[in-house]
Amino acid sequence: MPVVTVDWWKGNDRQKRADLVHELTSTLVRIAGCPREAVTVLVRDVEQDHWGRGGTLADEPGEVPADGAEPPERARSVLSESR
Question: What start and end residues bound the annotated signal peptide (predicted)?
Answer without folding.
Answer: none
